[in-house]
Amino acid sequence: MLYQTSTEGITPAMLEGFFDGWPNPPSREKHLQILQNSYRTVIAIEEETNQVTGFITAISDGILSAYIPLLEVLPDYKKQGIGKELVKRMLDELDDLYMIDLMCDEELQDYYDAFDLKRSTGMIKRNYEFQSGRNTL
Questions:
Q1: Exposed, middle or buried by CB within 10 Å (0-12, 13-18, 19+), for 111?
Q2: Residue ranges of domains in the chain, CATH in brackets
């Protein structure tokens, strides 16, 4: 598995199969925009097929804080350590910041305990009509 921290060479065609279960997922073109516009991105690529198998993104002010909104691994590649490697690499990328926040469903908290993240409470708002991405045309 190849890991890279840039979107160089990534095309929408390489982003097939993500956002499984989302009722209104972003298109592959919007997905690429998400990766390109993130403060930091780590992408896992299967070298034999040149397909993206997983990714993680962070948004940040670049000074004090960062938020990790997305971690995805394709279903056929789960349980192979790809997600763990993506999180590890992203935390290394953000290591010089004071605050790194991540929101997850309660059933996923055990997974993130292994990365020395602390459980917390938070509030969220979701505008599901924009789940596929804001129209920027």
A1: middle
A2: 2-130 (3.40.630.30)
